[in-house]
Write a structure and sequence with these properties.
CATH topology of the largest domain: Jelly Rolls
Radius of gyration: 21 Å
Helix content: 40-55%
Largest sheet: 5 strands, antiparallel
CATH architecture of the largest domain: Sandwich
Strand content: 15-25%
Number of strands: 11
Strand order of the largest sheet: 1-10-4-7-11
Distance between the termini: 57 Å
Order of helices and strands: EEEEEEEEEEHEHHHHHHHHHH
Number of domains: 2
Oligomer: single chain
Structural class: alpha+beta
């Protein structure tokens, strides 16, 4: 049986615009941007981070992430991804306790400081296949730095449990455009997959798959007609994986291809 590493180091370098395909953030992560910009779309906000930013990602959250290179320079970043095991070990070793639940933002830029900047500068010499023992050591150093310079994150890092049960209608109406698996929606609303499907059917009188597709198509129709956007600008925005699937589903539902709505025919 494979054992999941307790920490993961990712050095990314892209010459073309790159969309992170799965919007479900399953682990805590901290990213440093060396060059280029990083666009984050959450349900209720858009953020743009530029070179030099150090970004904190809370686990159990949905967001569209886009890495954008500069005109004459690649997008380049390093990230440390920390799973529950490394954080639990750190909590135990440092006798940390949760005094109150975290109520802050899920994704935000940390206030830059020399120790954090020096830490990430040192990571660029590592490869993506770095020794796990070294990664654990680097993870512990990072957690020390985070709690020293951003002590408000202690309650976030201690929040390792499954999300609590929340209002299903409000959550889905706010997050339907994120193209993630049904089981992830179940997890994020504090339900097993079976109870999620049962509650969903009682609330919406249809299956999650059918409801999600119709909501996405309705939003696409609005964006094409009212905002005069092209189909190529819309399909990813509303949660479809590829343009051909979007066009087929759109025509099947509305009787005309999305290009006719955009062109005003």
């Amino acid at each position: 049986m494979d054992v999941m590493p307790v920490a993961k180091f990712v050095h990314a370098c892209y010459s073309n615009k790159k969309l992170v395909t799965d919007p479900f953030i399953t682990e805590f992560a901290i990213m440093h941007i060396k060059s280029g910009s990083f666009i984050v779309y959450e349900a209720d906000k858009k953020q743009i981070f530029t070179a030099g930013s150090i970004i904190f990602f809370k686990k159990n959250h949905l967001a569209k992430l886009i890495k954008v290179p500069e005109v004459d320079k690649n997008f380049e970043s390093v990230s440390m991804i920390l799973n529950d095991t490394v954080i639990k070990n750190y909590i135990s070793s440092n006798h940390l306790i949760m005094e109150e639940r975290y109520k802050g933002r899920n994704i935000f830029a940390l206030k830059n400081c020399t120790p954090l900047q020096d830490y990430f500068d040192s990571l660029y010499k590592y490869g993506n296949g770095s020794n796990e023992g070294k990664l654990i050591e680097k993870s512990m150093v990072l957690l020390d730095l985070l709690l020293l310079h951003a002590p408000q994150l202690q309650s976030a890092l201690l929040d390792l449990g499954m999300p609590g049960k929340i209002d299903l209608e409000a959550y889905m109406s706010k997050n339907f455009m994120f193209n993630t698996e049904i089981k992830n929606f179940a997890h994020l609303t504090g339900r097993s997959l079976a109870s999620f499907k049962r509650d969903f059917n009682r609330l919406f009188f249809t299956s999650p798959h059918k409801w999600l597709q119709q909501k996405r198509l309705d939003m696409a129709f609005f964006m094409l007609k009212e905002k005069s956007l092209k189909p190529t600008q819309v399909y990813l925005e509303v949660g479809f994986e590829d343009l051909s699937h979007f066009s087929f589903a759109f025509k099947k539902t509305f009787g005309i291809p999305p290009s006719m709505i955009y062109s005003g025919e």
